[in-house]
Write a structure and sequence with these properties.
mainly alpha, 3 helices
Length: 89
């Protein structure tokens, strides 16, 4: 009887993050890091191109915006895939 109480309590705690089998916060843990990395990657590519072409700071700024757009798009795709998976269940 004590084992039954423990197992049912464990199930309640396990589904608290996403509720009803939805995405958990842990599934999106790397989204912020991925966003920052995409911005920094394109920033450095823009900075490198500015050094090669002498167009400073224009390609650096373009790189930041392209990196932010890529980060937002990646996060959007992740959210849409999670909501589609949640809708299938």
């Amino acid at each position: 009887m004590a084992d039954d109480n423990l197992s049912s309590q464990g199930d309640d705690h396990g589904s608290a993050g996403g509720g009803q089998g939805g995405p958990t916060p842990a599934s999106f843990a790397g989204a912020g890091v991925q966003f920052v990395i995409s911005i920094l990657l394109f920033l450095y590519i823009g900075k490198w191109l500015d050094g090669k072409l002498g167009t400073a700071p224009w390609l650096l700024m373009v790189g930041v915006f392209v990196g932010a757009g890529a980060g937002f798009y990646s996060f959007y795709r992740r959210i849409m895939a999670a909501s589609r998976d949640h809708g299938d269940r």
